[in-house]
Give the backbone structure.
Amino acid sequence: AQSVAQPEDQVNVAEGNPLTVKCTYSVSGNPYLFWYVQYPNRGLQFLLKYITGDNLVKGSYGFEAEFNKSQTSFHLKKPSALVSDSALYFCAVSPYNPGGKLIFGQGTELSVKP
Amino acid sequence: DAGVIQSPRHEVTEMGQEVTLRCKPISGHDYLFWYRQTMMRGLELLIYFNNNVPIDDSGMPEDRFSAKMPNASFSTLKIQPSEPRDSAVYFCASSPRNLWDTIYFGEGSWLTVV
């Protein structure tokens, strides 16, 4: 069965410092991997996705994520955090097959302090 | 270009009442999803449709929940009778062609059952 884990419920970072939000997955076959962000009282917004190709994926708002097949990870990163990055971040995975559903992790609350 | 539109945005209802949540997906999208978000259970996929046909309703919690998609531009999620444990944020989302395409979320319907 496919699954995705976000081991940290909360990540605290000082503004200007690099940030990492962790995600590991379990899926049979090749995965499709996604990051979504949810600001307070809003719906989820797409940040970036890995389908195939370059393991380093760049997305919106300066975020990037690295696909690591051997470690089954897809960590979200940003070189310099902003206070406005504070939000709830979701990792999601779907197996590469027509019937595969997108499964979301539990979410990680990112707090960036000035 | 309008995104996914949900109504009502907020609803407070009494236990035992019928609740109907509505959704207009993005025009041209083949897939429509209903998700529920709670603090305890995170983001759960309730049901999804492909070209107006329900494909997987395994996430619907019980028979009190039902969903329909009478045409490509409208879907409803109904709870009858409602219970306090149904209090949650319900998201409708749509995606263009495949289950692994980017999913576009609505702003959510915040349901409180008292």
Notes: Chain A touches chain B at residues 32, 34, 36, 42-46, 49, 51, 90, 94, 96, 98-107 (CB under 8 Å). DSSP finds no helices and twelve strands in chain A.
